[in-house]
Write a structure and sequence with these properties.
Mean pLDDT: 94
Helix content: 10-25%
CATH class: Mainly Beta
Bound molecules: 2-oxoglutaric acid
Largest sheet: 8 strands, antiparallel
Oligomer: single chain
Number of domains: 1
Number of helices: 6
Distance between the termini: 25 Å
Structural class: alpha+beta
């Protein structure tokens, strides 16, 4: 098992995120890329519960784009219905790292494919993941793996993290808003997470993070798989949780 080193695990605990370069080689991501092209096609097969979200300016008729794929902001809940996405979510290279951070009992709680199309992909404002519909108790036993399918740079809208912000626990939206950039520039403590294709960043469920619009002609697609400890209680009404490793517990996710 490719566990994190003690130094990497300590860095994650301190900063709330960790970059793992080259976790996947680009060739091994090809089945996922092919599947994304298929699911982003206008005649894509219907997925009963996956949610597709169109870019807001396209939706509002403010922007015209060439083709359906160029209009897609994100697709969520795909792995739960698609075997290629689920194979990625279950990949042992990711699961080994998640196990180092959350312990041996892990579920997949959600997944989101962030398309961020060239020139169209919009800003994702600062937020914490866990309070946004995960209903986990405690809320902090959650980690996201964000896998770069394209090169993610400052110009095409990579993630930005506020190091250490997870230590403040769940915070309200007014606080999230205070980090929103004046004049399009993040506060000085924010760190850009530039990644080569196949590299991944792992982030804590309570870290504040955001991404800029894609101002380039290059795509910036990233696939986020959200994991929780199987020991978390589930405070929502209905949740799909899939065992990734280890045991499940009564009354828990
Ligand atoms: O990819 C993005 O632009 C946003 C990703 C994000 O917010 C997440 O992975 O939690």
């Amino acid at each position: 098992m490719a566990r994190l080193s003690a130094e990497q695990a300590e860095r994650f605990r301190r900063d709330g995120y960790l970059i793992v370069d080259g976790l996947f080689d680009t060739e091994s991501l090809e089945p996922l890329r092919r599947r994304i092209r298929r699911l982003a096609a206008p005649d894509a097969p219907a997925l009963a519960n996956a949610k597709r979200q169109v870019e807001p300016r396209v939706e509002a008729g403010e922007l015209r784009v060439a083709g359906y794929a160029a209009s897609l902001r994100k697709m969520a809940h795909v792995a739960f219905e698609d075997p290629v996405f689920m194979a990625h979510a279950r990949d042992r290279r990711i699961a080994d790292i998640i196990e180092s951070l959350l312990g041996p009992d892990i579920v997949l709680a959600q997944d989101q494919l962030f398309m961020k199309p060239p020139r169209v992909g919009s800003r994702q404002a600062f937020h914490q993941d866990s309070p946004l519909g995960f209903h986990l108790d405690p809320p902090d036993l959650m980690v996201t793996c964000w896998c770069a399918l394209d090169e993610a740079t400052i110009a095409n809208g990579c993630l930005w993290m506020i190091p250490g912000s997870h230590h403040d626990g769940v915070t309200d939206r007014e606080r999230w808003q205070r980090y929103e950039p004046a004049g399009g520039v993040e506060p000085p403590e924010a760190r850009p997470i530039e990644l080569a294709p196949g590299s991944c960043s792992f982030h804590h469920g309570l870290i504040l993070h955001a991404s800029r619009p894609n101002l380039t002609d290059r795509p910036r697609c990233g696939y986020a798989t959200h994991y929780a400890s199987a020991r978390c209680r589930f405070r929502g009404e209905r949740g799909d949780h899939v065992t990734i490793r280890g045991r499940r517990f009564p009354g828990c996710v």
